[in-house]
Each structure stands twice: as C-alpha cells, then as structure tokens.
Design brief:
577 residues; alpha/beta; four-stranded mixed beta sheet
Length: 577
C-alpha cells in the first residue's frame, strides 16, 4: 500500500500547525505582502520559482510566534505525497504540479511588469489570496494521509480537515473567493497532476473504499468523476480548437488508447455513483436522482458510446497490464489484487449501466446546455488544480467575482456563472487572440451533450439481449501445431504492432518505435499486451479494439507463450484461444 511505501506523517501535529497558521493570519499575510513588494528587483528574481518558494514558506516557518516543533514539519506532507507515488512527472514546457503560491507570484509579477505595480493595499489583497491557497494546498496533502494511521479514525480526521477549511473561510476577508467548500473535493485535486506511478491511484482508491463511510465515498467519487470528465473533455476541446471534429476517427482512437488510467478510475467512481443513483430511484428521491444523473452524464461524456454501448471494449481499454497481471515462478499468469478488484468493478459497471440506461436518458435531458447560460460541458482546464489558480489570479482585479467555488464549476448556472467562467482569463496582460481562443464554447458543449444523450437513447431503446457485435481475436502460441489460420480470419495487421527490435522491423513484422517511448507507453497502459524479445520490446496497440473488433471483424495473432497467456487472461471475453 502507499502508506507502507511512504511511512506516515504525524497527522495531529499538522492539524495543530495549520491551526497556528490560521491564528497568526495577519502576521503571515503581512510577511507575504513584503515578499510581493518586489518592484525593482532583477528580472531573474521575479521568475525564480525555487527561490520564491523558499521565501514564501519562510514567511510561515520562520515566524517567531510559532511553536518550536513547526520547522520540523516543513515539507513533510509534500514528501509523503511524493513517496506515495504522486510525484509529478517532469514535463518540459508544460506545467504539471498542484497549485503553488510561488508559481502564482511569478504570474502576478509578470502581469504587474506588463501593466503597473500595485500599492500596499493591492499587495495585501493578493497576499490574502496566496495565504488561502497555501493553506488549501496543505489541507489537500493532509487529505491524502487520512488512512495512514489506521482506518478506524479516518472519518474523524476528515472532519478535522473540514473544520480547518471552514475556519480558513471564516477568517478570510470578505473580498476573497472561497476556493473550495468541501474537504472531500481535495482528494481528486491532490491526484490531478500527471505521475509515472499509476499504481498509486489504485492504492488510494482502495484506501478510500475501506477507510471512509458511504456518504464520504460517494462525495469523493462524485468530485473525482466530475473532474476527470472535465479534464478529458478539455483534451477534446483542445483538438477541436485546432479544427478536429470530436468524432474524428483518429481522435477517437487517440482518446481511447491513451486514457487507460482515466477510464479505469472513472469506472470505479461510476460504480459507486450508479448504485447511489439506483438507490435514489428506489427511494423516490427525485432531487438526488437528477443530481446524480448529471454527474454520471459528465463522467461518460468523453466517449459516451464506449461507456454505454461498448462496455466490452471499454473494459479492454481500461486494462493496465503491468498493474493488473503478474506471473508466478512457473510462468503461470494471474490477476493481481488490483486487477481482481478492477475486473469485479468492470462487471458491476456493465450490469449497472445496462440496467439504468433508460432512467439515465430521461434524467440527462434536464442537463441540456442552454444558450446564454452556463453548462459544465463547456468548461476548459488542464488539471483540476488549475481552476483554483484561475480564481486566485482574478483577485488581482478588485471587481473579481467571488461568489462561486470549485464545486460550482460542475453544476449548471445562469448568466452570472457563465460570466464568471468566461472571465477567468480576462486579465490585462492577456491579448485578445488568446481570450477569443478560450471563450466559453457553447457549440462544443451542445455537441458533447448531444453525444451523451444519443448514447443513452440508443441503450434505452435497444431490445433486451440485443447488442452490437464485437469481433474476436484468435490467439495462438508460437510453435503450436494448432496455430494455423482459422478459415476467413486475417492476420492482425502490422500497423497495430510496435517494436524496437530491428529484425522484426526489417522483416516488416512491426512498426518502428524508440524503446524508451515504447516502455513509457507500456507504463501508461497503451498496449493490449507487451513483451521483451531478443532485440528489444514489442507492443500490440489497443487501436485494433476499435479498428477491427469494434467493427465486428475477427483477427488472429501468434505470440510467444507468456504474452499469449496474458492476453487470454485480460481480454478473455474478446479472445478465441
């Protein structure tokens, strides 16, 4: 488990430290204001995130009024989070970290340098926002430590985090936005940056499933599904802005093949939400039913047909070979505990979505985007933590909207909420072309919703027991006398085979790929199966799931014994052995 890899941090000591920060808010904000008073400093200082980060944290941990133990706690939560598997991947040119006050100072300095530097009152207002952001960051990291010291008290620890969050907003000036109201929403925020250790996400999900009561689990899954759906829709919008239709076949293949983790985690969240939705129907709770249907619709929105009508393919796309399958000393393959849990959840999801498609279709119609109003189907962001960064940056303007918080991004609203979302990037140093590019995309929101509604309508109107035919992959083992081609079944085309082995490439048995790239793609779950050969690695991309099996065609492939066994286990419903 992640806690075993990371060790534990003294949870109560961090709670008391944050209480001290809140108690000394005025003094700490004054210190932050002094760091922001940087007009005239060299340009390199204004862009030095590492130096600014040290200066910012010094404001807190060198405060004489703090208890003597405070300096020993500095950085513990961050290090524990990274040791749990959530160290952000270094991505040159692409910001990939949870919201950071130092980064927000760099952005403010850039704006002030391009426009004009504020006086003391302006700096104090931004210092208040940075204080809030830093405390929320600490609470976000503390949320990930709820179960480290045992499951029995996890719920009580969550209540402590919520009490600290409530106290933060009670001490915050009236002109500051409430960035997030519910401490449970901080769990998916902590997991939003891209990392290399995919296993950490499943470990965290497993702890949530065993440590927290049902109401808390539902809310965490609600936040996780909403944020993941928004993130994946934003990827679609990125390509859409470049002229690619959201149903373009190449974009469909790319989205399906590159999101194994997002699909797997969304399935896990949707199982909990669909059960709660079914319970709301049974209890006659119309309000809860409608609210949950809206969340589920956003969760499936990146590829509704896959999530509703091609669940057999969704199951295959969500497989992550190195996490879900392991071999024993004899070479026999079996599910890992993580794999067993995922397979069970996939089966539950398939049954739930088939059973609930009709009421979901009826309820989803209430979420149709309306022109002149706001729909979360049109929101755009990279990671969920970016949303709070937008809110903090807007405090640089005295007339910034402060009525809405993170949770409000994912619910419908009127013209006032539309103006709030549309105004995030409207800052004086951002040029008109960029602003136009990121205008609220009404047509995109309507198009995405239409796909959700169509997928649910197709499922609701389909006759019981009928389904679209999915092809099968015939798998034989190298050297097997039975490996002869089945009648009428073609060999899997070489376009689906990637390799770093020069001999295979020269023999036109695989497409060339750099080995480092192949291993990265393997770690991301982009291959149906992968294996090492004498001259490198081989990976079978998941594109054949849509390109061949998804069109009802069969194909055949001959593999060495070990990868053949892995393929038969992971995709047993799609395989003919």
């Amino acid at each position: 488990m992640a806690s075993e890899r990371a060790g534990t941090v003294p949870f109560q000591a961090h709670v008391e430290l944050l209480q001290e920060f809140l108690g000394h808010r005025d003094a700490l904000v004054e210190r932050i204001q002094a760091v922001l008073n940087a007009q005239g400093r060299p340009a390199y200082y204004l862009q030095d995130r590492a130096q600014l980060s040290r200066a910012f944290e010094d404001c807190f941990f060198t405060l004489p009024a703090l208890s003597g133990e405070a300096p020993q706690l500095r950085g513990q939560l961050q290090q524990a989070h990274w040791a749990s598997g959530f160290r952000p991947r270094i991505m040159p040119g692409i910001p990939n970290d949870m919201f950071d006050p130092a980064d927000m100072m760099v952005r403010a300095f850039r704006l002030w340098s391009d426009t004009r530097w504020p006086g003391r009152n302006g700096r104090l207002r931004y210092a208040q926002a940075l204080f809030n952001l830093y405390v929320v960051r600490c609470l976000t990291l503390l949320d990930m430590r709820l179960c480290d010291e045992g499951a029995a008290e996890a719920s009580a620890r969550l209540a402590q985090v919520q009490a600290l969050l409530d106290a933060l907003w009670k001490t915050s000036p009236a002109d500051q936005p409430v960035l997030v109201r519910d401490a449970r929403w901080l769990v998916p925020v902590a997991q939003s940056p891209t990392t290399d250790d995919l296993g950490a996400y499943f470990e965290a999900a497993g702890k949530i499933a065993t440590c927290l009561p049902e109401a808390d689990r539902i809310e965490i899954h609600r936040a996780s599904v909403l944020m993941a759906g928004g993130h994946l829709r934003s990827q679609l919008r990125h390509f859409n802005m470049q002229g690619t239709a959201i149903d373009d076949p190449a974009l469909v293949l790319s989205t399906r093949g590159s999101n194994a983790l997002d699909f797997a985690m969304t399935i896990q969240g949707l199982v909990t939400l669909l059960k709660a939705y079914e319970g709301a129907i049974g209890a006659g709770d119309g309000g809860r039913r409608t609210a949950l249907a809206a969340v589920i619709g956003q969760g499936i929105s990146v590829d509704p047909q896959l999530f509703v009508n091609r669940v057999d393919l969704l199951a295959a796309y969500s497989m992550i070979e190195h996490l879900f399958v392991a071999a024993d000393a004899t070479g026999r393959v079996a599910w890992t505990r993580t794999g067993e849990r995922h397979v069970r959840l996939v089966h539950e999801y398939a049954a739930l979505v088939a059973r609930l498609a009709k009421p979901l279709h009826e309820d989803c119609l209430r979420a149709r985007p309306v022109r002149g109003s706001y729909s979360p189907y049109g929101v755009m962001y990279g990671f969920s933590s970016n949303l709070m960064e937008h809110m903090v940056m807007k405090t640089l303007q005295p007339d910034a909207e402060i009525r809405f918080s993170l949770e409000d991004v994912f619910t419908d609203g009127g013209a006032d909420k539309l103006a709030w979302v549309s105004g995030w990037r409207k800052l004086p140093h951002i040029n008109a072309e960029v602003l136009k590019l990121y205008e609220y995309p009404q047509q995109f929101a309507e198009d995405v919703f239409a796909r959700v509604e169509q997928a649910l309508r197709d499922a609701a109107s389909r006759d019981a027991g009928s389904s679209v035919r999915t092809g099968r992959l015939h798998v034989a083992t190298s050297g097997d006398a039975q490996a002869a081609a089945p009648t009428g079944v073609a060999q899997l085309p070489v376009e689906y085979v990637r390799s770093s082995d020069r001999q295979l490439i020269a023999a036109h048995q695989a497409q060339p790929v750099d080995e480092a790239r192949l291993l990265t793609d393997r770690r991301e779950g982009m291959f149906a199966v992968s294996y090492q050969v004498a001259g490198g690695w081989v990976g079978i991309t998941k594109d054949f799931l849509t390109g061949i099996l998804g069109t009802g065609q069969d194909a055949r492939i001959v593999l060495p014994a070990a990868p053949a066994a892995v393929l038969r286990l992971m995709y047993q419903d799609l395989i003919v052995a």
